[in-house]
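User: I want to check something. If I give you two sequences, will you return the structure for each one separately, not as a complex?

Assistant: Yes, each is folded on its own. Here is the first sequence with its structure:
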Amino acid sequence: MSHEHVSYLELLARGAATEAYDRPVLLARASGAGPEELAGLEEAKQLALRVRAELEGRRRREAELSALFETAHDLAGLRDLDAVLRAIVQRARSLLGTEVAYLSLNDPAAGDTYMRVTEGSVSARFQQVRLGMGEGLGGLVAQTARPYVTDDYFGDGRFQHTRTIDTAVRDEGLVAILGVPLSLGSQVIGVLFAADRRARVFEREQVALLCSFAAHAAVAIDTANLLAETRSALAELERANDIIREHSGVIERASEVHDRLSQLVLHGGGVHDVADAVSEVLGGTVEFTEEGAGAARRSGGHAVREGDDWVAAVSAGGETLGALVLHGQPDLDPVDQRTLERAALVTSLLLLARRSAGEAEQRVRGELLDDLLDAPDRDRRLLRERAARLRTDSAAPHVVLAARIDRAGGAADTDAGGRESADRQRLWSAATHLAATRHGLASARDGGTVLLLPLGPGESAAELARQTARSLGGTLREPVTVGASAPVRDPLDRPDQVAVAYEEARRCLDALRLLHRSGQGAAAEDLGFLGLLLADGRDIDGFVDRTVGQVVAYDRRRGTDLVRTLDAYFASGMSPARTKDELHVHVNTVAQRLERVGRLLGPDWQSPARALEIQLALRLHGLSDAVSGR
């Protein structure tokens, strides 16, 4: 490989600007290189630029996927519509790199459009502007239900300019504007904008990304509307009860089933209890099924007849949860049809309540374990009270377990980040269920899951780790590796020991993975440092390369002393002042070297978990050099 080709690799490695790629060609031309060599260099330059563009594209797509995942997560836990919309606008502005982003919504009652959320705006006039329907760039977007972009707002004659809009835009100083529609079905309910105070061209990928954020914003608004409709439906249920009492015969049956359903809800009844109660009152057989909603799904909440059966969809927020099916009553009275529909509504509420209660308990278990790990100085009496409410077994010795999904070969596609996020979510869900059944705690942490589980009579930490690996792996149908700490006695009285035990469990987990024991469980006492030293040499080299390989390679290329500086830094208790004494250099030299290390290893390299891995890799690297005589 020629020197110039190596230069292009170095440019790629350090992420150099595009202009830097012309330098090897210019140097070769200046030194009198022949046409063939210049042509080869030009071809290498173009190839390097294509690789650079691909890397930049992948980094951008990873950031976009992460932001869209975070937005979807916001929607899943929707509590405050304004907060979700603000997050969407902020992420859109950040990823598109614009100075301003904003979102407007139509107000059908007032017959105009108003500014709902702005980010980066400095003009009060702009933030409070209300526009007539069909006016401005937003009006063109709403009219056509298509994205529109202008690189010169005031010189663009495709849309209707008005004094109000132009004054507000001029006051904000905007020049280039991209607008995409917020659509619910065929209806445009608003517009999401990204804008700059200078001329710029929005690429097709940026338009598509803003459209994705607009779709999330429309879903958030639709979800909030559906929640309001659900509350309205509950109010309607109460009003229907007053009307039903005015009738006789069939009305009495409806009243009876309403009372029974209310009692079931108040006393914690389940879905099948609702089906049994409605069966008894309507004189047929009612069953709940997660399938077979059929035409009822499209009936707008009404019961529909399918053959000799009546079916009422059980749904909430646009999600079909199942159906109530009534057998044996083909000629159902209209009021009884309403009764079946109300029973379906109550069933949906019970299912949502059960789901919400489960999610709330999972969050509470995770929060308590997070407090034990991150805030061991919390009031211990309050910790015990919180644990008692979760029915944890605080009297037994506990073991901290670190768990992680391990795929053979790892994810090699461009959606690896999204897959890892989905894996963490699935693992956390399975772990919280296991923790609840074993009266313990679980929380998502460090790319995996941490559990705090009580030991059963005569059970060892190693046995518990193996059981946990089998249980989680069986639930997820993928190998789950579990490292366990030594038993911790009275964790609620000694919360500081929980964090220590977690680090021990993580070290055990790392050792298992390095020893090719993915999908297994073991306790820290089973392995320790010797487990890693006995691993296959290629595994150790791979671990060292993944952890500090960039630093080692940098030293070899540049003749620097970053590895030696790291050794001295950790040996000096991570103190730059003591490190400079050890190395006999100025403290600014130490700071500059550590800054370079941070750029090579990432900003979190001094976090406890990363620092532990780096120190281990440095020791293994030193042992490897000593053995090889380097």
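And separately, the second sequence with its own structure:
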Amino acid sequence: MPVPPKAASSATAAANRAALQELAFDDVRDFEDVRRGFIAELPDNGVIRDAAGDLVWDLAWFSFVEAGEPAPDSVHPSLWRQSQLITEAGLYEVSDRIYQVRNHDLANVTIIEGDGGLIVVDTGSKAECAKVAMDLYYAHRPEKLPVVAVIYTHTHIDHYGGITGIVTPEEVSSGKVAILAPGANFEKYALGENVTCGNVMSRRAAHAFGTLLPHGPLGFVTDGGGLALPPTGTFAYLPPTDTITTTGEKRTLAGLEFVFQMAPDTEAPEEFHFYIPALKALTCAENANHSLHNIQTLRGARTRDAANFAACLDEAMELFPDAEVHYGPHTWPVWGKDNVRDFLGSQRDAYKYLHDQALRLANHGLTPIEIAEQLDLPPALGRAWWNRGYHGTVNHNLKAVYAKELGWYDGNPMHLHPLPPAENARRYVEAIGGTERVVELAREAFEAGDYRWVVELAGQAVFADPGNHIARGIQADAYEQLGYQSEGPQWRNLYLTAAQELRDGVPTTGVQSTGSIETVMAMPLDLFLDFIAVRLNGPKAADTALTVNLDLTDGDQPGPHSLQLANGVLHHRPRHTDNADLTLRLGKAQLAGALLRPGALAAAVEAGQITADGDLAVFATLTGLLDDFSPYFALTNSNA
């Protein structure tokens, strides 16, 4: 039976009450803005189901977050306030011809009415949720205009994964619907991130986004920038038909002119902002939210450039000074020219401050942890609700700036070649006097409310002896209190999920992989084969050499290709090689099946779907050297 969570301690309750005096809780403008333009609630009381009738989304999951009620002791009051704001859900008018459906999914769907057609900006993560958004819009607008364009603002799955709930592949392939996206490498980053590192990222995302936690004041509250990622449903992908690569490019969509500003290497590797002059409406995509964003995601992704965040927001203010409304794919809009400039300028300054001050202290010789302990945003920035850490936090963003500019090594040779965690922990525990002594010290620290030190002490005992339930229990108790004290929802989720797993063990279900078969099949061939190379067990393959020629009959790169294995490395080239051990003539789907499912090649050859010339055992050797990934590995003790 799962161990139930424990209540907030007196130390946690006191820490959370103190936050009420430190932040601007008398500023209630956001509560007025979040309801502005309300048209209709989500249908079916916010319940969304898939074609089989299985539950994808239920607004009732968040019913415990009651409007106007004070925060419980187990939730930081700032996170509680933000959660009260983002549980407001439904269809809203942003401004003339612009509408949003919010909190039916992690991200908003924005619908812009052109002349005779609709432009949809971002799709949310799941097709079922996107369809509900469009149906809700159509139910409350007099003219049923067709969708003529979809805009992906950036490469993250919660902004393109719902695409087939809005348009069909046939509508796109026929030219009836255009899909616009930023950058020449949009697909590389959109699909590669979710597949190549998808297994570990999915596991870490389940911690960061609270997927495995029960909803409630002792568990998952919200994700801060949005309610949550739907735990089930259909991730989809349709490739762009038009890409924007240069600031100043324009497109006319359904009679409206869109002016684009490139913002690469900010919140996503490929991202853009755009302005609609006729509507004086601006979106800076996910570079401007009612939340501080991540410079380094806790789920794991490429580290971002805080200085570039600031520079792109500053450029947007210069390029589009007449903007009278700013809307985004998360949270709610900002109205009024002066308010838009205040909002963008404040967020710009927050990212620039983090960047510059982290490097100032680095130049004084401070390490990332020391920098994060010393710095906070100045009051004018830090008390602005839109700069609070509901996604990124000041603490881990400062460490990310250091890592981005200076790398993982902090200059101390002690950290250059340390012992592995489990071995280090065994020696640590032995030096202190054994596990019982470590646990005794941890209990004393817990009673004193010194939870960070408890986590360190008990964590060494857990790494030294993962089966020690006493050590696991005291570390879980400390993680839990740290979670209750966290303003940042991802910190809360990480702490509380760690506590849950220390008590109940590593989960065996509940982690939804972003590397779905639909995503894999949408990947360009070279990116798919890069992923196969990542799966190769190098040490096991070190003494194996083989070559397979491929004649691909369809897909994005038909024609001759080859796979070459030597020295524990798998290469692929867009041409045949001489003296191949095996030549296969097949389609892209057959190739994916043969590489991803052992035994699929022989069955397909026998069925006449694949033509083979050479030794089929060579391919079996190759697939036998590929690792399978499971997302159910330990995060609170060593997997080594």
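Because they were folded independently, the notes below concern the second chain alone. The chain has a mean pLDDT of 95. Residues 337-363 form the longest helix (27 residues).
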